Amino acid sequence: MSRTTYYTATTLDGFIADEHHSLDWLLTQDVDPAGPMNHDEFLGEVGALVMGSSTYQWLLDNHIATGGTWDYRQPTWVMTSRDLRAISGADIRFARGGIRPVHAEATAAAGGKDVWVVGGGDLAGQFADAGLLDAVIVSIAPVTLGAGRPLLPRRLDLRLVEVARNRSFTCARYDVIGPRA
Ligand SMILES: NC(=O)c1ccc[n+]([C@@H]2O[C@H](COP(=O)([O-])OP(=O)(O)OC[C@H]3O[C@@H](n4cnc5c(N)ncnc54)[C@H](OP(=O)(O)O)[C@@H]3O)[C@@H](O)[C@H]2O)c1
């Protein structure tokens, strides 16, 4: 059965990017790409992606603009209120507003595989607000930033399901219980 999972790296103090959307703090860390809770293994279980426009813009600016290709074969919903540039050959669907129809479409497209909420944190929060976020997987880098783009700016209870170390990272998998009273 399809699950909706927010999978991301974070700083120890709960930021997924700095105030300028830089991931320098992340890309310099030591990680085993075949180690616990690695990206490729997770992606193999994913049938559809949903991301916010800043995350999409980061990929455009830092990956596509430097000659990289769109790495995802799965359909990807990009949440935005603006008209953004699509990427040739990529299955990208722009959407806005309530998250429920996007969740329904993405879950149907995933064909039993998981829906990956790529980020940012408020987008994951929108899924949680609607009771549609099943799990959170974080790789915690050994760095603090003091400020930046938040990991998950909501009050939620979660259940710790799994922990592992991947070189520099503490990796943790949680099930979402629901809003914290
Ligand atoms: N550490 C990691 O592994 C990791 C993972 C993912 C992302 N990131 C980074 O973290 C940062 C996240 O940026 P962010 O906090 O700004 O979050 P984001 O979710 O990437 O982008 C937020 C923007 O998405 C649009 N949006 C979100 N929900 C919407 C909705 N329901 N309807 C219409 N538009 C909606 C809005 O912009 P507009 O309407 O103006 O377009 C909103 O300002 C990025 O720099 C990204 O590269 C890091």
TrEMBL record:
Family annotation (PANTHER family): 2,5-DIAMINO-6-RIBOSYLAMINO-4(3H)-PYRIMIDINONE 5'-PHOSPHATE REDUCTASE (PTHR38011:SF11), DIHYDROFOLATE REDUCTASE FAMILY PROTEIN (AFU_ORTHOLOGUE AFUA_8G06820) (PTHR38011)
Membrane-spanning residues: none
Pfam families from the UniProt entry: RibD_C (PF01872)
InterPro entries (UniProt xref): DHFR-like_dom_sf, RibDG_C, Riboflavin_Biosynth_HTPR
Name used for this protein in its record: Bifunctional deaminase-reductase domain protein
Organism: Pseudofrankia inefficax (strain DSM 45817 / CECT 9037 / DDB 130130 / EuI1c) (Frankia inefficax)
GO molecular function, one term: 5-amino-6-(5-phosphoribosylamino)uracil reductase activity
Residue ranges of every copy of the Bacterial bifunctional deaminase-reductase C-terminal domain listed in the record: 7-155
One GO biological process term: riboflavin biosynthetic process
Superkingdom per UniProt: Bacteria
